[in-house]
Amino acid sequence: MRLVTVFHCLNPAEAQLIRSRLEAADIPAIVTHELSALSMEGYSLATGGIQVQVAEDRVEEARELIESADPTS
User: Fold this and answer.
1) What's the rounded Cα separation, in Å, for the pair 40 and 43?
2) Distance of CA 58 to CAs 11, 32, 72, Å?
3) Cα separation of 23 and 17, whole Å?
4) Is the pLDDT of residue 60 over 70?
5) If we measure between CA atoms, which residue out of 10, 60, 2 comes closest to residue 30?
6) What is the Cα–Cα distance from 50 to 38, expressed in whole angstroms?
7) What span, in angstroms and rounded, lies between the C-alpha atoms of 55 and 2?
8) Cα separation of 16 and 26, whole Å?
9) Residues 32, 9: Cα–Cα separation, whole Å
10) Which of 1, 8, 12, 29 could join 49 in a cystine, given CB atoms 3.0 to 4.6 angstroms apart?
11) Where are the domains of the chain?
12) CB-CB contact of 44 with 37 (8 Å)
């Protein structure tokens, strides 16, 4: 199973909120780079931030859910 990043951010709470919303919709998700971002200053920016990833076959569904929950869109 290949994982694909569907969301980037610099805030661990935001990443966990998105993961939670995805899992509530039965889309398994993981958060990567969270601990490194918290332990090393600047690491999060250098690596593209904290990432939320889902299985390749769930990417479209996950992105739709994330976009529908975004109050700025």
Assistant:
1) 6
2) 23, 17, 23
3) 10
4) yes
5) 2
6) 10
7) 6
8) 15
9) 11
10) 8
11) 3-69
12) yes
Q: Does residue 3 carry a pLDDT above 60?
A: yes
Per the structure block, which two tokens stand in for 52? 């939320």
* Neighbouring residues of 27: CB distance < 8 A, sequence distance ≥ 6: 54, 58, 61, 62, 65
C-alpha angle 25-29-30 in degrees, rounded to nearest 5: 150
pTM over 0.85: no
Query: What's the length of the chain?
Result: 73
Contacts of 49 (CB under 8 A, 6+ apart): 8, 9, 10, 33, 37
- Quick one: CATH architecture of 3-69? 2-Layer Sandwich (3.30)
Residue 2 scores a pLDDT above 90: yes
